[in-house]
Amino acid sequence: MRRFLSPHLLLVVSCGLYMVIGAWIFQALEGHNLKNVKAERSSNIEKSSDRYLDRIWELAHSPEYQDMDPQKLKDTLRKESKSQFNEYVDMVFAAHRTFRHGYENDAPSWDFLTSFFFTATMLTSIGYGYVAPFTFYGRLFGVVYCLIGIPLTLVTVANIAKFISETVFRLHYELWRLWMRWKERKSPGLGVDEESRAMFGESEDEQEILDRVKLIRFPPFVVFLFVFLYGLLGAYIIHKNEQQWSYTESMYFTFISILTVGFGDYRPAPTNLMTVLLVIMGGIILTTMCMDVVGRMYLKEIHYIGRKLKSNNPFYLIREAKARRRRQAMASLLAQLARGMIFAHRNYSELAYRKERVKERRRGSHVRDDVKQWQAFWRSSQEE
Question: Are 78 and 59 in contact (CB under 8 A)?
């Protein structure tokens, strides 16, 4: 079990450390700059306001406007000070859009929590735009950080989703096996076919069991129902933390987030960032898991349809006929070679046997000649 979980834990820990390190670096690069930008924007707003008021004061005390009708004077002042007013409004709107939009109490800042939320949503390709790097080095680091971090995060999410989906498949397999055993005990006369026995046998590999999608199929609407129910639950949790949002707005934000769209039109309060992040990450993992389950169920059917469509192509049929003839010719050649090898082996065995017989005959005749010579020598010695 430990060896099975160690790769998954290592991948999760690596991705988490990567996010934490990225949050620290963004905080160091952008934290001080954000304070400077805030001070600069506030100064620009104050200067623009002063220019607008000076222009109004100058026009109101101009000698040519002293005896003018009040309504006409009002229209003239509005017309003459329009450029200064528009400049002032643009300054206020830019500052509000950058620092205050969506935050009734606290403006965003590059503290660690906000930085971590930024890195997590950036690496999951949501990208709300709550905060964004302003400096050149911050933007450069963001590009390099995403080039490495987005693949790592996607692999981690896919790995967790695959681990959960395989756990679901194994659980479904165990329940199915218990059901089949109960069915066999209840109806002993009804046997199970050999394919099902082979599938639920103890000796079969787990991966082969998981690949048999015909017997462990989930209806697609059930799979996506999990995502919908999780979205409703996540919207309820976010709604409880974001009191200013209605449940419909929370549900909209949740589904837009777990589908990694992230429009950025709704912004959670800084105190609720971690809760929102946990809900979103869980939804992304669940969505990926459902995609994996549906993909594994219908992958073989898609391949089957592709083969059926491919088999109707006349050029494909011609290529298949040629390939079949080549396979038959190769099989015939191998058969002839095998027969030749068998024939050569038989001939060699026969020649070796004959050669051995000749040697034995020669060895026997030599012994008999020696015996005859010894007998003749013995007889001659006796006569003497």
Answer: no
pLDDT of residue 38: 76
Residue with tokens 């609407």: 221
> 320 is written with which tokens?
């298949």
Length of the chain: 384
Per-residue b or e along 269-288, where b marks 16 or more CB atoms closer than 10 Å to that residue's CB: bbeebebbbebbbebbbbbb
DSSP code for 125: T
Sequence-distant (≥ 6) Cβ neighbours of residue 192 within 8 angstroms: 180, 184
Q: Which two tokens stand for residue 80?
A: 């003459």
CA distance linking residue 45 with residue 345, whole number of Å: 102
Taking the C-alpha atoms of residue 162 and residue 93, their distance in angstroms, rounded to an integer, is: 46
Average pLDDT for 237-256 = 93
> Which tens digit of pLDDT belongs to each residue from 23-50?
999 999 988 777 777 778 788 888 888 8
Asked if residue 135 lies in contact with residue 27, where contact means CB atoms within 8 angstroms, the answer is no
99 secondary structure, DSSP code: I
Q: How many CB atoms lie within 10 A of CB 11?
A: 18
- What b/e sequence results for 81-98 when a residue is b if at least 16 CB atoms lie within 10 Å of its CB, and e otherwise? beebeebbeebbeebeeb
261 three-state secondary structure: coil
Which of 37, 31, 231, 11 is CA-nearest to residue 113?
A: 31
Task: Look up residue 266 and give its DSSP letter.
Answer: S
CB 156 within 8 A of CB 15: yes
* CATH for 2-166 (3.10.20.310, 3.90.380.10, 1.10.287.70, 3.40.190.10): 1.10.287.70
Q: Please tell me the distance from the alpha carbon of residue 181 to that of residue 178, in angstroms, as a whole number.
A: 5
- pLDDT average, residue stretch 351-375: 60
pTM for the whole structure: 0.61
Q: Which residue bears the tokens 């109101």?
A: 60
Q: Tokens 């992040």 belong to which residue?
A: 277
- What percentage of the chain carries pLDDT values higher than 90? 23
Which of 27, 193, 173 is closest to 110 using CA atoms? 27
Of the given ranges (102-116, 138-152, 274-288), which has the lowest mean pLDDT? 102-116
Residue 115's Cβ-count burial label (10 Å; 0-12, 13-18, 19+) is: buried
